[in-house]
Amino acid sequence: MRPFPILFIGDVVGFVGLRALLKELPGLKEQFSPRAIVVNGENIVDGKGLSEKEADELFAGGVDVITTGNHIWENWKARPLLAANRNVLRPANYPEGNPGRGVTTVTLQSGVSFSVVQLQGRAYMQNIDCPFRAADTILNKLVGKSKMILVDFHADASAEKIAMGWYLDGRVSAVLGTHTHTQTADAQILPEGTAFISDVGMTGPYDSVLGMKKDIAIRRLLLQTAHKYETAENDVRICGAFLVLDEESGKAISIEPFMTPRPRTTTKE
Q1: Which of 48, 27, 35 is nearest to 17 (CA)?
Q2: What is the pTM for the complete model shown?
Q3: Contacts for 86 with CB less than 8 Å, ≥ 6 apart
Q4: What's the CATH class of domain 3-203+238-259?
Q5: What is the pairing mode between strands 195-197 and 188-189?
Q6: Among residues 71, 154, 179, 181, which one is catalytic?
Q7: Active site (annotated) includes residue 71
Q8: Pairing assessment for the beta strands 174-178 and 148-154 based on DSSP bridges
Q9: Domain-by-domain residue ranges, the chain?
Q10: In 53, 77, 86, 145, which residue has its Cα 20 to 30 A from 246's Cα atom?
Q11: Residue 252: strand pairing partners
């Protein structure tokens, strides 16, 4: 067994989330000693999308791969980035003709390789190609390239995420849910060695509704009409999962979700 520690950071929301992550990354590296870092960055630019500037900042900070999701298409600056950078992913199961790719294999200076796959769910989301069949196609192509495979499954429904975890158990190292911005309490190692969590959580402002200003989100729900979302700014936290994989087998050894700083769970005396 050769342990391979990897750090996965949940959906980064807004420039405030990006600034906080870049500030805290040195401390996270010291705390976890990861050999690779993967970040979901689809919500950085005004809560929707990513551009080359923000991607470059993440890579300069030590990030190896940036994953995204459905909101990546809402910022036109993301399209040339997706086309040009192999380590900025978009969901693999979008129809052919869209820029970018949904899988990458990274080879570190040590010679160790790992792959990251990006898929998007369909329940309560766009009716794109089947993520389960897309996973089959990708995994067939990855045979012989790397045993360590991490899947970012960007999906709305917990049931669909859980189903994907079972579907890929023993075939990938980890299935990590993103998109809902709320960290779930179901982190586990499935029977055949795949680490799973329904949602890693949000890196961004928690004095908010999923990263957006509370008053606007509430107004939309009360009035049932469109109001432009704005990114919130306060109570910024970092959410993620720290995984240890086995280089030899590709199976997960451990998964540890984290949130920093921790939320208040008792009243002050």
Answers
A1: 48
A2: 0.95
A3: 101, 104
A4: alpha beta
A5: antiparallel
A6: 71
A7: yes
A8: parallel
A9: 3-203+238-259, 206-236
A10: 86
A11: 245
Single-letter code of the amino acid located at 198: S
Q: How far is 58 from 85, CA to CA, in rounded Å?
A: 13
Helix axes 158-168, 131-142, angle to 10 degrees: 30
| Distance, CA of 67 to CA of 55 (rounded, Å) | 10
Alpha helices by DSSP H, 33-104? 52-60, 78-84
Q: For residue 104, what are the contacts with CB-CB under 8 A and spacing of at least 6?
A: 65, 86, 87, 89, 115, 116
264: its two tokens: 């208040």
Token pair of 151, please? 């899947």
Q: How does pLDDT run across 172-209, given as a tens digit for each residue?
A: 999 999 999 999 999 999 999 999 999 999 999 998 88
Q: Express each pLDDT in 37-47 by its tens digit.
A: 999 999 999 88
